[in-house]
Write a structure and sequence with these properties.
Helix content: 25-40%
Number of strands: 8
Number of helices: 8
Strand content: 15-25%
Radius of gyration: 16 Å
Shape: globular
Structural class: alpha/beta
Distance between the termini: 25 Å
């Protein structure tokens, strides 16, 4: 990696490198939310296939789904993944160091808000996927009650101050333009006013955490 790109990457990931333990501890202190998000994602994970997580952080979603390959742009995060036995690479989502048609599915959870260019990231995901490969994206819906709260408070956060939150329709449009179709959605983390007691449901529009599954179009790569 050229020195200038390394410097840019270090600046972008400084908070994640310095506060890796604090980032990881969030999942322990918000266990119910984490478990609900896991269940919403799990419903779309294909069994027994070769997947990769992009923007994997400390592996909180790679581990429960037995994903053995992951990337993260933060050095400390990538090192943490290796310590957990995951084959990790320090890299950006917009420039994946893998050959075309290498994986059966790509997972991105709470990472797209940190990408410099989601269109480029989705094109790269499409490139490394096999025929009929899946992309599975978990993210905070910017139009949800939770998403509005995150946007209003992001300047108070070490991690989210530079984040860009997207609506479901924005992500669907970008995925369509990147060569994906066959969309399905799950949602979780509901506002108390909804009265919903389940961990996750199909669809979107009520839950703050949305998971989109899409299929790579067969005529690509």
């Amino acid at each position: 990696m050229p020195d200038i790109l390394k410097i840019q990457l270090m600046a972008k990931t400084e908070a994640f490198d310095r506060y890796t333990t604090e980032y990881d501890f969030w999942y322990d202190t918000h266990k119910q939310i984490y478990e609900a998000e896991c269940e919403a994602v799990r419903n779309f994970i294909p069994a027994g296939l070769n997947g990769i997580e992009i923007g994997a952080g400390t592996g909180r979603f790679s581990m429960p789904f037995n994903i053995r390959t992951a990337i993260d742009p933060a050095f400390s995060m990538a090192a943490c993944l290796k310590m957990k036995g995951i084959n990790s690479v320090q890299a950006a989502a917009e420039a994946l160091p893998f050959r075309p048609c290498s994986f059966d599915f790509v997972l991105m959870v709470t990472s797209i808000c940190f990408f410099d260019d989601i269109d480029a990231a989705f094109h790269e995901a499409c490139r490394i996927l096999k025929k009929n490969g899946l992309i599975i994206i978990g993210f905070i819906d910017s139009e949800s009650e939770l998403g509005i709260m995150y946007k209003h408070k992001k300047n108070e956060s070490r991690f989210y101050k530079d984040a860009v939150f997207y609506s479901v329709n924005e992500i669907l449009d970008s995925l369509k333009n990147s060569g994906f179709s066959g969309f399905e959605c799950n949602q979780a983390v509901f506002p108390e006013s909804s009265g919903l007691q389940v961990r996750w449901t199909k669809g979107y529009g009520t839950g703050g955490f949305v998971v989109i599954k899409a299929v790579k179009e067969n005529n690509l790569y």
